[in-house]
Amino acid sequence: MCTGKCARCLGLSLIPLSLICIVANALLLVPDGKTTWTNSNLSLQVWLMGGFVGGGLMVLCPGIAAVRAGGKGCCGAGCCGNRCRMLRSVFSSAFGMLGAIYCLSVSGAGLRVGPKCLINNQWDYHFQETQGSYLHNKTLWDLCEAPPHVVPWNVTLFSLLVVASSLETVLCGIQLVNATIGVLCGDCQKKGSAH
């Protein structure tokens, strides 16, 4: 596969993943679908915006750059026509990889620490001492009095962010290598094309 076609394919995969991260992070801000909990009752990992900033915006840019790198370059088609866009895609992919790793770290910490919830009239990270073992013990989930259903809400959305950001990390890494090859070797060209 040509580096341009590969870049386009990778970019078209990164764009929906980044949008999934943005939506998942937005949903984390409204547990149980209600905005009444958004003052100081959300966990730090939600406010760090790993899905919105890291897995979202920081990956959306390399996704768009990769799609653009798959098109005709500023100098036209051919061996060197796409190198400037591929070079931009190299830097964008490195930037996107950092964003995806940030999202993965924040989301993993969110799963390990657990949500901030109300138990016995006290708002705290009540599952922090369990080192993530609360994930396997669903009877603990019912201990949270408010926000309602916050544990399955956080577990589902943070798990989605972990999966999406893991895929983004791999895809950005592949695009980083692909774009580097595209810069060094140029994009493949059809046989018989005149210069």
From TrEMBL:
<comment type="similarity">
    <text>Belongs to the L6 tetraspanin family.</text>
</comment>
<keyword id="KW-0472">Membrane</keyword>
<feature type="transmembrane region" description="Helical">
    <location>
        <begin position="12"/>
        <end position="30"/>
    </location>
</feature>
<feature type="transmembrane region" description="Helical">
    <location>
        <begin position="42"/>
        <end position="69"/>
    </location>
</feature>
<dbReference type="GO" id="GO:0016020">
    <property type="term" value="C:membrane"/>
</dbReference>
<keyword id="KW-1133">Transmembrane helix</keyword>
<keyword id="KW-0812">Transmembrane</keyword>
<feature type="transmembrane region" description="Helical">
    <location>
        <begin position="90"/>
        <end position="111"/>
    </location>
</feature>
<protein>
    <submittedName>
        <fullName>Transmembrane 4 L6 family member 5</fullName>
    </submittedName>
</protein>
<dbReference type="InterPro" id="IPR008661">
    <property type="entry name" value="L6_membrane"/>
</dbReference>
<dbReference type="Pfam" id="PF05805">
    <property type="entry name" value="L6_membrane"/>
</dbReference>
